Hints:
The protein is mainly α. It has two domains: 6-180, Cytochrome c-like domain (Cytochrome Bc1 Complex, Chain D, domain 2, Orthogonal Bundle); 195-283, Cytochrome c-like domain (Cytochrome Bc1 Complex, Chain D, domain 2), CATH 1.10.760. Helix content is 44%, strand content 0%. The protein has 16 helices and no strands. The protein has helices spanning 6-9, 12-25, 37-42, 54-60, 73-76, 82-90, 108-111, 113-119, 139-151, 157-163, 168-180, 195-206, 218-221, 240-252, 262-268, 272-283. The protein is globular, with a radius of gyration of 21 Å. The relative contact order is 0.12. The site of one heme C (HEC) has 24 residues, from helix 2, helix 8, helix 9 and helix 10.
Amino acid sequence: MRARSQAMCRGMHMAAIKGLKDDRRKPRQDVSDWENPRVCLVEQPAAAAGGWSALEMTGLSPKLSRPSRPKQKAHILSGLYIWVFVLLLLLPVHSGQAQPIDSAPDTMEARMLPCASCHGVQGQGTNNDYFPRLAGKPAGYLYNQLVAFRIGRRHYPPMNYLLEFLPDAYLRAMADYFAAQRPPLPPAAITIVSKDMLALGQSLVVQGDPGRGIPACAGCHGPSFTGMEPAIPGLLGLKPSYISAQLGAWRYGTRSAAAPDCMQIVAGHLTETDVTAVAAWLSTLPAPANPAPVPRGTLAMPLACGSEPN
Ligand code: HEC
Ligand code: HEC
């Protein structure tokens, strides 16, 4: 198994998309492991002694603590996780050519480099309007999303592709990693929508509109919109386009969560104008003093949500 350098695993945005195209349209042999970011997720970024091996990542160490030694290898050749192994076997090996190794330590941070070009190294987000911030969202929420992409309940081909073969334990480790990150929130956005639109956004988010069956967003996302443990996300640091797109996805049925899917009910009551208004107003909020999600059970939610056991 060749080692992958940190540089190789960085800048994987284009590679993710290319890998996807290659995967779907060409024979597998054409996918070079140099270009395939999935390899960076499962294989050691460098051949550092004592690091996790690709095999060990496939389920031997559910908590991703450094596994003892590969003596249990036979054990993992059972179950679903074998597919990660199969994937690695299918990738071509260009032997005989020495590859540069810049000895990246085998850390979770290094393994998450394929995610960094779209989400930022700490999950802080990027300038792209549709690439969400991950940092500091509750781990249970992030885990649910990773599962949703893996099973196709959420659709974004590069993410569906990257997560396709990864075991639950690894998704949990990714979720825990990004939930623990605390990069500063971006400065409040300067919005181009009218004052009236902002006022509508604020009133819907803070008070809701009971006459139209719209509960206050704050009732679940928290008084300062930092979310609630274990699985309600904060709504800060997200671009208005991303928020609008997600609400639209619920309205059109391309995003769903465990039943009862409270967000589908909420989004279903919003008009296009409401969506623009709430997304714009949320993006103008400054960072709160405490960006942490409120503890589990803190808020009396106005509706039941399948993803947030109450
Ligand atoms: C090519 C860009 C790209 C790459 C690479 C990428 N993502 Fe994403 N990710 C996105 C986009 C875009 C979305 C939102 C998709 C949508 O509209 O639902 C997203 C959504 C997510 C979400 C849901 C966020 C939320 O608030 O609901 C999580 C969690 C996530 N990504 C984690 C990861 C992890 C972990 C990796 C690396 C294994 C990764 N992503 C790699 C672009 C990317
Ligand atoms: C009854 C509780 C509840 C209410 C009220 C509610 N939400 Fe949510 N919201 C949730 C839950 C739970 C999730 C996570 C769903 C999932 O796992 O995909 C969520 C997710 C979201 C997301 C996705 C965030 C991301 O990073 O992708 C957005 C955007 C959102 N809500 C906006 C709103 C807005 C705007 C309102 C008010 C109009 C609102 N929510 C009201 C419970 C609620």
